[in-house]
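Structure tokens please, single chain.
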Amino acid sequence: MKKKIIKTGIEESYEKLAEIDKIYSSKIHVNDIKKIIRAYEIIELTSMAPTEAYKEYKESFDHISDNFFIIKLISSNDSIKNKISSRIKKMFKNGWIDEVVNLLDNGVDINSHPMQSIGYKQIAELLIIDKYIAIEDTKILEDSILKETWNFAKKQKTWMNNFEQNYILQLD
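Here you go.
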């Protein structure tokens, strides 16, 4: 699908998507290739416009969601940031940079979806500039990864608020 969209052109693919699903296309940027690709995958798999497919999925999910027991875990922002920071340091200590080097050396494309994950993306981009990063020189990289991970954690917290929780557990 990606090759087809690139061949057609991102803007033209976006314009065709806008003809198919004006609502969905108005919610995404013309250059957001991942969401454009996903929209065409949804169309191909479901024979429905993404807005229609999401609506149908939401209706079916609302029906079965009564069977879920949702527990919301709450930690202070400081606690979450400390855990993220600790995990990042541990991953660097355990060879995260070597892992990314190995993935790139074995042909994993820097633009592939897995390499766009938080941390992997930042390390891979830095490795393109400087193939040999000393573990002592990772402070700026760690800070960048911490910032991206914290932003993602905030999005997760906001997303969780969309659901009615059956039980809330304070962890701190």
